[in-house]
Write a structure and sequence with these properties.
With 99 residues, the protein is mostly helical. Helices cover 84% and strands 0% of the residues. The protein is built from six helices and no strands. It is elongated. The chain starts with a helix and ends in a 5-residue tail after the last helix.
C-alpha cells in the first residue's frame, strides 16, 4: 500500500479496493465466459482474453491515478480468469474420458 499511496496520492482504503478488484473480476466474470466458451469455442476466448490481459497490464503499468488502477485491476482479473476456469473443458476437449 505505501507505494500506491505515495505514487497515486490515494488513501489506504482506495489502495485496498484497487488491489481487491482483481479478485472480484476473477470471481464474477467466469460466470459469463463459461457459457461464451460453449457457444463460440474455447480458442477464440483464449486469444481475446490473452490479448486483453496483456493490454490491461500495460494499462496498469501506465496508470496515473487510482481510478485507472481500480478499473484496470478488475479487467485484469476478468481477462486473467479465463485460463484458470476453462481448463476443465479444454482437457475434456483434448482427451477422451477413458484416457
Amino acid at each position: 500500500f505505501p507505494s500506491m499511496e505515495r505514487d497515486l496520492n490515494c488513501t489506504p482504503f482506495q489502495a485496498a479496493i484497487g488491489l481487491s478488484m482483481y479478485c472480484l473480476g476473477f470471481g464474477v466474470v467466469p460466470l459469463v465466459t463459461a457459457s461464451l466458451s460453449e457457444e463460440f469455442g474455447r480458442q477464440p476466448l483464449y486469444v481475446v482474453c490473452s490479448i486483453g490481459f496483456m493490454m490491461t497490464n500495460l494499462m496498469l503499468a501506465l496508470a496515473q491515478n487510482v481510478q485507472t488502477v481500480i478499473v484496470g485491476r478488475f479487467l485484469s482479473g476478468a481477462f486473467g480468469s479465463t485460463g484458470a476456469t476453462m481448463v476443465g473443458g479444454t482437457v475434456a476437449d483434448i482427451w477422451m474420458p477413458a484416457e
